[in-house]
Specification:
By secondary structure, the chain is of the alpha/beta class. The protein has 15 helices and 5 strands. The protein has a 5-stranded mixed sheet with strand order 1-2-3-4-5. Helix 5 packs across helix 6. The longest helix has 26 residues. The chain is globular and about 50 Å long. The two termini are about 25 Å apart.
C-alpha cells in the first residue's frame, strides 16, 4: 500500500497537480472527480489519448537481438537458463529494456530474478491463494476492459476498508501479499504480451478516499516492507508497471510524498501521477470516459462484488 505514498518526485507537473487538488478538494472526496466529467465525455475518445513508445514485441526482439544473444552467452547466465519456455527471449528482453540496453546490468538483473524465484518458489506457488485473501481486507480488482493501449487496469481502494483490521495485519502478510499481487499482475501482462505480440504493462489506479494523516503516520512501519518490495520488483518484475494513477488524494499529499520518497525506487516514483480531475485520470490511464468507473466520476457502472457497498450510497452521488 505504500505505493500510494510516492509520486513524481522532482517533477513540476506533479507539484502543480497537488497544489490544485489541495486548493479545490471538497468534503466529499469524489465530488471533484465528478464535477467536470460531462464536459470531457466526448473529448476523451480513444483516438485522442496518448500513444506510448515502441511496444511491438517482434520489433523490440529484433532491435535488441544482439543484447539478448550476449546475455545467453554470458558465463553468469548460462548455468541458470535451464527452462527454455520460462527463460526465453521475451524474458531476457524485459531485463534489457529495464536496464536501458546495458547488457552487463541486464545480466545482473536476470541472474537476481532467476535466483530469487528459485529460492522463493514456495511463496510464488501460493500467489493465487494469497491474492484472493487480499480482497478480504483490501478492495482491489481488475477492470473487465483494458486501456486503449491494451494495458490491464487494476483498481485499488486501500482506505475503503476496516483500517483497524488492516493495521493489525503482520508485516509478513503485507510482504507476501505484496509479492502475490505483483506475481498475478505480471503473469497477466506476460500472457497478453505473448498473445498480442505487444509489450504489455499494468496500470494501477489508486483511490485514496478515506485516508487520514493519523493513519498514514501510524503505518510508517510499512515503509521498510514497501522498500523491500520495490527493490525486489525491479529485477523480478521488470517492465511490468506502466503508471500509477492516484485519485482523490488528501490535502496532505505533499507529506506523503516525502515519506514515500524514502522507500520507493525512483523508477516507481517517476511513474506516479496525482490527478485532480476526470480528464487527468482518463489521459493518465489511457482510459476513455465511458470506461472509467462511475465511482471515480466516469461513465462506466461497475458492479463488481469486491467494491465496497458504501460507494453506491448517497455519499458517492
Amino acid at each position: 500500500v505504500a505505493a500510494i505514498l510516492g509520486c513524481q518526485r522532482g517533477q513540476k507537473s506533479a507539484a502543480a497537480s497537488v497544489g490544485e487538488m489541495a486548493a479545490t478538494r471538497s468534503p466529499q472526496p469524489r465530488a471533484l472527480m465528478q464535477r467536470t466529467s460531462s464536459s470531457f465525455a466526448a473529448a476523451l475518445s480513444p483516438s485522442k489519448l496518448r500513444e506510448e513508445t515502441e511496444t511491438n514485441l517482434d520489433v523490440l526482439l529484433v532491435r535488441y537481438a544482439d543484447a539478448i544473444t550476449r546475455m545467453r552467452q554470458s558465463e553468469v547466465l548460462k548455468p541458470l537458463l535451464l527452462d527454455p519456455l520460462e527463460h526465453d527471449d521475451v524474458f531476457l528482453l524485459r531485463h534489457v529494456l529495464s536496464t536501458k540496453g546495458q547488457v552487463d546490468k541486464a545480466i545482473v538483473s536476470a541472474e537476481q530474478c532467476i535466483t530469487w524465484r528459485r529460492d522463493n518458489a514456495s511463496l510464488l506457488a501460493r500467489a493465487d491463494d494469497l491474492h484472493r485473501t487480499v480482497k478480504e481486507i483490501l478492495p482491489v480488482g481488475m477492470l473487465p476492459h483494458a486501456s486503449t493501449l491494451d494495458q490491464p487496469i487494476q483498481v485499488v481502494m486501500p482506505f475503503q476498508v476496516d483500517l483497524e483490521r488492516f493495521a493489525r495485519a503482520s508485516l509478513d502478510w503485507h510482504f507476501e501479499t505484496g509479492i502475490a499481487n505483483r506475481e498475478v499482475a505480471f503473469r497477466l501482462c506476460d500472457k497478453i504480451t505473448r498473445q498480442k505480440r505487444k509489450l504489455i504493462k499494468v496500470v494501477l489506479l489508486q483511490d485514496l478516499s478515506g485516508l487520514t494523516f493519523s493513519f498514514a503516520y501510524s503505518q510508517y512501519r510499512l515503509g521498510s516492507v514497501q522498500g523491500k518490495l520495490s527493490k525486489i520488483s525491479s529485477f523480478v518484475y521488470p517492465q511490468m508497471l506502466a503508471t500509477v494513477v492516484i485519485v482523490n488524494a488528501p490535502s496532505f499529499i505533499n507529506a506523503l510524498l516525502r515519506m514515500g520518497s524514502k522507500f520507493l525506487a525512483q523508477k516507481v516514483l517517476d511513474k506516479m501521477k496525482v490527478c485532480s480531475s476526470v480528464e487527468q485520470v482518463c489521459v493518465a490511464a489511457n482510459l476513455p470516459y465511458d470506461r472509467l468507473p462511475s465511482f471515480l466520476g466516469g461513465g462506466y457502472d461497475w458492479d463488481a462484488a469486491w467494491i465496497p457497498e458504501r460507494l453506491w450510497g448517497p455519499s458517492s452521488s
